[in-house]
Design brief:
The structure is a homodimer.
Chain A: H1 3-10, E1 16-20, E2 25-27, E3 35-41, E4 44-49, E5 55-61, E6 66-67, E7 79-83, E8 87-93, H2 94-103, H3 105-131, H4 134-150, E9 159-162, H5 167-174, H6 178-190, E10 194-197, E11 200-203, H7 206-212, H8 217-223
Antiparallel strand pairs in A: 1-8, 2-7, 3-6, 3-8, 4-5, 4-7, 9-11, 10-11
Helix pairs in contact in A: 2-3, 4-5, 5-6
Chain A binds a DNA duplex through helix 6.
DNA sequence: CGTGTGTTTGACATACCTCAAAGTCTGTGG
DNA sequence: CCACAGACTTTGAGGTATGTCAAACACACG
């Protein structure tokens, strides 16, 4: 199912279009979140806050992604969604969605697919954060974001891609400190693999990056929303 | 929906009951997995293998959990499911399941709930692996498994719980080495917090453990399958 | 012109890993 | 019954990847 069809279905709901500037929260860690969101444009980061104030970014989302959904009866406290750049979303009351799901098997299947995709991506991130070096984690994350942004895996040398991230956000996603992320980005630049600067990623050597990122072919499929 | 009702529904499928001994693979990293499984008894570990042979355990599952499900069209290579003790599962062809889902909204909702629950748990693990110390990661994992096994959060001092895990498996789940897990377990024993020995966890000081594990109340709800 | 956020760099500290070796227990075959 | 191998655990010594602390720089914003 294409995004356009999906959006048409969503018009049967009391949806609202909302926009958020960079750094604005779509929902906060302790908000009762009664809405489900579909990204129309821009980047959103979903993060999970721990009791001592540490933050783990679990996902980066872009156009077509759905977020804010929760299992009924479970409170997922400590989760928040932040706009990374200028973001436009379609927000609808969660209650209305569950009604629609029963009558629209297509939409239901789409939703199940999205949730499964999300799981794959999160488990992939977990595996890298748990098992690999700082350099590999960063390389893998940048590959993920690149594929999400461009919706393709292969890139020519010196391609430039806009990724509206700070080094600090890369740190929160990879389980590193911003300072160490900075050191690793410097090393990647010195090794002529990539240059990440002011939200612009330059792929100096895409093949080297793919190797460093320990990229399996399969996961890249999940990064692309068709 | 209770497990009994669900099992009754599953009888409409060509399900098969299968058993696996400790260490046996329910499915391997490169198997085409055509089945979906529902655990009747025992523990199963789901893990994600990286290219260089590293392994990350992303979930531990017990009675009532569903696994083996994948988003249509996405190959999730490198994932495997291993029996930790004597495991009995109900296996059904994935194709049959999707037919049933359309006709049984109850089952469909249950499945969506399970997937959401799974996501919460994996994101929680990611946050701990990415952001916390070895001691906290281990404490948090042991709390998770304890709650899954007993289906309740509170425990009296010196309660004993059977958790059929090796230190090496704890290491694979927490992103540590088995050697370091051993050292941390020794420290927990010396600090009279817990003792983990031959698959038996003794909660010497449950409150101290809960604090160490940085346990939020909400996530515990997701650990219990009702 | 000051304040804040993000980046960059250096010196130093440490949590965790690696390597090495011995100990325990179980199962197996002679 | 003994010898052996294999999985898991335990401990020590030493190394290193990453974190911490400190300071300066750049840039945007009011």
């Amino acid at each position: 199912m294409k995004t356009e069809d999906e959006l048409r279905d969503l018009q049967m709901l009391q949806y609202r279009i909302r926009s958020y500037g960079p750094g604005k929260m779509v929902y906060g860690a302790h908000d009762p979140h009664a809405f489900v969101y579909n990204i129309i444009s821009g980047w959103v980061a979903i993060s999970h806050d721990l009791l001592d104030g540490q933050r783990q970014i679990s996902q980066f989302l872009t156009k077509g992604a759905i977020f804010g959904l929760r299992p009924e009866g479970l409170v997922s406290n400590g989760k928040s969604a932040m706009a990374l750049d200028e973001v436009t979303v379609c927000a609808m009351p969660a209650a209305n969605l569950s009604v629609l799901l029963n009558s629209h098997p297509q939409l239901n299947r789409r939703l199940v697919w999205m949730m499964g995709r999300e799981s794959l991506i999160t488990e992939n991130r977990l595996a890298f954060v748990g098992q690999t070096s700082a350099l590999t984690r960063i390389a893998n994350l940048l590959m993920e974001l690149t594929v999400m942004a461009t919706r393709k895996l292969a890139h020519m040398a010196d391609s430039k891609i806009r990724l509206p991230l700070t080094q600090s956000q890369i740190a929160d996603a990879t389980g590193l400190t911003a300072i160490h992320v900075n050191r690793m980005l410097r090393k990647l630049r010195e090794d002529r693999v990539l240059d990440f600067h002011d939200g612009i990623l330059t792929l100096m050597n895409p093949d080297a990056l793919k190797t460093l990122a320990q990229l399996g072919d399969e996961i890249a499929d999940a990064w692309v929303i068709d």
